[in-house]
Amino acid sequence: MLTSVTSTVPAALSRAGLRRVLLVLCLTEITSWGVLFYAFPVLAPGITADTGWSATMVTAAFSLGQIVLALAGIWVGRLLDRRGPRPVMTSGSVLAVPALVLVATAGSPHWFFAGWFLVGVAMSGTLYSPAFAAVTRWWGERRVTALTAITLVGGLASTVFGPLTALLAGWLGWRGTYLVLAAGYALITIPLHAIGLRGGWSRPEAHPDQPPRPPGQVARSRAFVLLTVAFTLASFAIYGVVIIQIPLLLERGLSTGLAAVALGLGGAGQVCARLGYGRLTAATSVRGRTALVLGAGAGSVALMGVLPGPAALLIIAAVLVGMSRGVFTLLHATAVTERWGAAYYGRLNGLLLAPINIVAAVAPWACTALAEMLGGYPAVFAILAGFTALAAVLASVSGTR
Question: Is the peptide bond before 41 cis (omega within 30 degrees of 0)?
Answer without folding.
Answer: no
